[in-house]
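Before going further, learn to read the protein records used in this course. The integers have meaning only within a learned vocabulary of local backbone shapes. To see the layout at work, look at the sequence and tokens printed below.
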Amino acid sequence: MSESGAQLFARLEARRCLKEIEPRLFPEDGGPDHGEVVELYGTEGTGKTELLYHLLCRCVLPKAAGGLEVDVVFVDTNYSLDMLRLVSIIDSRLNPALSTSSPIAGSDEEALRSCLSRLLVVHCSSSSQLLLTLHFLENSFSSRPGLALLLIDSISAFYWLDRCEGGASFAKQEDKLSKCSELLGRLLRDYRITVLATCHALRRSHRGTSSDSHRPYLCRPWQRLVTHRLLCRRQEAPNNGSAAAGSSEEQGRRQVFTVHCTSRGTRAPRSSSFYVTDGGVEFT
């Protein structure tokens, strides 16, 4: 029997909101709501990947381990997803919960398998494949109300390839990503999912200021979708010549990164800092 509009709406109403995905990153009045887009932006080496893994783990971990216990689709356009690193972070978050009298049942391996069962990974090697993948995923969004987050790493992966294929026509250069953005807009509206996408900063111009590399450059349809922008930077280490060798080594292991969050509307921006450990991101 086919599903009525009222039945579909009731089922989609059950989709989990991700406002609490990471309170230390977003403004006090909350993180991304249903149908919103978070862009994780920065140059190489600014902690974007580790922050992405942190947010992913927050979603798939059980509530007893501080997670949201929701399903996630990870679209890997860079073929760079490090599953060993991801499993290591999940395992490090699970262990403290398993060692206490928490309601997590079963062995360490069963708990880990349960977390990974909430993650679907797909790969794309072109903007055309990304567009087809989003069409293919629509059925999953419709049939699985537990699927709350779509991760794309990265949305800018095919920028230079599309520019090359588009030739001298600016419209053709942006055509594929524009179509992907338009489809994403409909999926956000119809299925109330949340999208989190990384975006690599362009190389700064030789005559520009340091802010040049942080200006949005993807097509307007994508820019119109973005409701939260997380700008990642590497924090410069203080030049302290009197520091002991041991403390310098410790500082090197704990490179600090900063994240500046801006949100559409009247919400005030927020800045936070973190460093990376074997167990993942730790906020300062």
Q: What stands out?
A: The first strand starts at residue 37 and ends at 42. Strands lie at 37-42, 71-76, 119-123, 147-153, 194-200, 226-234, 256-263, 270-277, 280-283. Residues 241-249 have pLDDT under 50 and may be disordered.
